[in-house]
Amino acid sequence: MEQPHELTVEAPRVWDRPAVAVPVLVCLSLVGGRFASFSTEANLYTLGTGGALIWLGLSNRVPRRPAPYRLGAGAAWWALPVVVFGVFEGATFVLAAGDDFPTFSRLADPLLEDRLIRSAAWLAWLSAFWGLVRR
Amino acid sequence: MMRTLAIGGFLASLVLFAAVEWAARREGSRIPTLSDVCAYVMRYEVGSVPVGRIGLFGFWWWLGWHFLAR
């Protein structure tokens, strides 16, 4: 018997469930963490995974959570961390003082040489990307 | 000295990001979460071109490439 539309709930697709998405993201991150900076593999892997996620995000293949129609005045609070980060990134970039007054990238580079931290960074990047695709 | 200032500044901004997100997730908060802000930005379209979506995806892609491949 056919159910009224209001009473039916669309089941999430298999690959859209956390039980599938999380292990896939972890595996992709572990692979990404093996590639050193400036290597051809790292470039191709970043372009490949990012390109695939952009393709998913611009097509209608992934269900999206609804976006707010307007943001309240409270959204202005987000300017605070953005401005603090921007001021320091801008100052360190413009002064170009190397390790004496390093940019955020320069500080992060030695940390990202560790394979475990690199994989964690990959997981953070891919998870946030997947979150954006679904918004 | 200047190096400590830079590290302190970047750490402060990361703590502020976490603090605002924490405040946004409280019951009845009037601050939108970062996810909601991104979703709002991604709604922006020029004609039928999803400019906000393309821009945010492009920025995030570049960020990953910059830190993980360069």
From TrEMBL, chain A:
This is Uncharacterized protein. The chain crosses the membrane at residues 20-38, 75-96, 116-133. The lineage of its organism: Bacteria, Bacillati, Actinomycetota, Actinomycetes, Micromonosporales. The keyword Transmembrane applies. Keywords: Membrane, Transmembrane, Transmembrane helix.
TrEMBL record, chain B:
InterPro entries: DUF6186. The chain crosses the membrane at residues 47-68. It comes from the Bacteria. Keywords: Membrane, Transmembrane, Transmembrane helix. Pfam families: DUF6186 (PF19684). This is Uncharacterized protein. It comes from Micromonospora endolithica. The lineage of its organism: Bacteria, Bacillati, Actinomycetota, Actinomycetes, Micromonosporales.
